[in-house]
Amino acid sequence: MGIKLSILDQSPVFEGETPEEAFLHTVELAQAAERLGYERFWVSEHHDGDKVAGSSPEVLIAYLLAKTSRIRIGSGGVMLQHYSPYKVAENFNVLASLAPGRVDLGIGRAPGGLPRSTRALQQGNPVAGDSLTDKLKELSGYVYNRLSEEHPLFGLRATPLPGQPARIHLLGASVQSAELAAELGMPYVFALFINSDPVVAEDAFAAYHRSFNYAGGSKPQPIIALPVIVADTDAEAESLASEQKLYRVTLESGGKVTVGSLEQAEEFGRQAGEPFTIEERLAEVTKGSKATVRQKLLEVGERYGVAEYIIITALQDFSKRVRSYELLKEAFTEAAAVHSEGTIKEV
User: Fold this and answer.
1) pTM as predicted
2) How many C-beta atoms surround the C-beta of residue 266 within 10 A?
3) Distance (Å, rounded) from C-alpha 42 to C-alpha 189?
């Protein structure tokens, strides 16, 4: 089974940069990913924050599709809890009609922002409180034009109906999200950059395989998303990774969220309106030279039973960010070439 490498870019806005510059970097990175042979390029959805620019993945996806020609482009992910499944399906059916066979629809379970933005997004939305399971089933019915006969809107279509609809993926970081993806027969992406607990990841993938619903003819497609930094030496990668920090906010009621800055963590706690604590820690980053990272990723794949990695590399120096993705692709391409040559010689 061949290794697939993909990219999730969150359009980070670093100190001294503008959102315009962040989006230019996203476009350049998507074009580089296509040139290097990455499988897919996804963009994220975040609200009411100065550190990331991507609040509307559908709009950004359309632009990236126009700026590339082959690579799959998608969302990592659309926060379905806020939206009408019908409208999301329409948006992605338009995208899939404009770029046949190139569109992914990744669905996220998190709010994608602070409590205030969640209230704003769901204001006047009668379906905002519906369960994610029901909304995912409805979305799938519209995207694949197979709405259940029991649905009160049976017969409704999310036009246009593309010949190759977007592929729906479910993103999550828990056993519950894996079980939901399995129930619906969808590809599942475990976000190790959000929940770095290896036991939870193992349990999630085990549950995904154990509970997978084969009724629709689909097969399990487990994917892992994780932060990676590749440099010319292990020491350089270690130095670059030392910049990466995460902040876990724990609310008195038990709710938890992980964010990328202390300011955002404090603001989340204030907007939640209840007592909270903040834990700062270094991000769990897979880092090193080409050889080191390749070996580490192969170990990750063996541990979790995955063959596709969605890579996040959020380095402030854009040239080093691109270089990291170049080195990563080289690591697996060169290894594959050596293996191929060895196979030929053995024959």
Assistant:
1) 0.89
2) 15
3) 12
